[in-house]
Design brief:
By secondary structure, the protein is α/β, with parallel strands linked by helices. The chain folds into 2 domains: 180 residues, Thiamin diphosphate (ThDP)-binding fold, Pyr/PP domains (Rossmann fold, 3-Layer(aba) Sandwich), CATH 3.40.50.970; 127 residues, 3-Layer(aba) Sandwich (Rossmann fold), CATH 3.40.50.920. Helix 10 links the parallel strand 13 and strand 14. The termini are far apart.
């Protein structure tokens, strides 16, 4: 069984979809000859040509706007934003048009567009290369939002996103691009629309996704040394959200911790905490505790380790809900 990185899983997913469906086109800055900043589109232009792997101008609004036009004519564009913070020039196209075409046309014109966005910190980059902007998109009706945390999920979730008839924001945890896993491709088994129970436990549920999954796994392993059994859930799809898996776990443990890189105020972690409180309040033995970035612009690289949730902050939250 070959060992691949998360980045290679994404590359193979694009190749797989392009081989199966000639309507799939990839477009973005430097995605062709250069193979993308993180080499996610490496060698695809050589294989499929410049008409299907398109190097665009440095204009994110134009990339997504062109993708919308192509989707109207039956193509399945995969638009790459080089970094999370570069998505903002395309924000109006995404939220005002891409998200609304299905409702605007009374269901006659869903747009099958995937917007790939490397996101999150941990790579020693500047602030607009390290942001967590998922809350903007989960708040926008009409968009689906997904983020993988493993190479196998990177492959399978991107294939699902490309085959979805609706627009999908595909968030790629850039500091996890180089994690490795033994994977037999193509990955087709399992229900990837469900959250993944990474580790079973009975004492506390830890909800997380994307770049924070590995951090939470390490914290759960450390907690187990003290006899604390953490149930770790990787959400995978943020919208639509798999509430059934979440609530089943919280009913079992009675305690919940949410871990993300995003600043706490107005974040997706707030939505998770609210859903648990609304739907399962009587099962809780303690308030839901959130661990995330601080409410400041993303800091300089030399101090980002103080900003990002780490093992100690997660363990402190677990102790807090257990000792409430």
């Amino acid at each position: 069984m070959p060992t691949i990185t998360l980045a290679q899983g994404l590359n193979e997913a694009l190749r797989y979809c392009m081989q199966r469906d000639d309507r799939v086109v990839v477009m973005g800055e430097d995605v062709g000859k250069a193979g993308g900043v993180f080499r996610i589109t490496d060698k695809l232009q050589q294989e499929f040509g410049e008409q299907r792997v398109i190097d665009t101008p440095l204009a994110e609004s134009g990339i997504v706007g062109t993708g919308i036009g192509l989707a109207i004519y039956g193509f399945k564009p995969v638009c790459e934003m080089q970094f999370d913070g570069f998505t903002y020039p395309a924000f109006e196209q995404i939220t005002s048009h891409l998200a609304k075409y299905r409702s605007r046309t009374m269901g006659k014109l869903p747009l099958s567009v995937v917007v790939r966005i490397p996101y999150g910190g941990g790579i020693g980059a500047v602030e607009h290369h390290s942001e967590s902007l998922e809350a903007y998109f989960t708040h926008t009706a009409g968009l689906k939002v997904v983020t993988p945390s493993t190479p196998s999920d990177a492959f399978a979730l991107l294939v699902d996103a490309i085959e979805d008839p609706d627009p999908v924001i595909f968030l790629e945890p850039k500091r996890r691009y180089w994690i490795r896993e033994d994977v037999e491709l193509p990955v087709t088994n399992g229900d990837r629309r469900k959250a993944r129970i990474v580790r079973e436990g009975t004492d506390v549920t830890i909800l997380t996704y994307g770049p924070s999954v590995r951090t939470v796994e390490d914290a759960a392993e450390e907690a187990a040394k003290d006899g604390v059994a953490c149930e770790v859930i990787d959400l995978r799809w943020l919208n639509p959200l798999d509430l059934e898996t979440i609530m089943t776990s919280v009913k079992k443990t009675g305690r919940a911790v949410v871990v993300t890189e995003a600043p706490i105020t107005g974040s997706f972690s707030a939505e998770l905490a609210a859903r648990i409180a609304e739907d399962d309040f009587l099962s809780l033995h303690a308030p839901v505790i959130r661990v995330g970035g601080y409410d400041i612009p993303y800091p300089p690289a030399k101090v980002e380790d103080l900003y990002l949730p780490d093992l100690d902050r997660v363990l402190d939250a677990v102790d807090a809900v257990l000792n409430y």
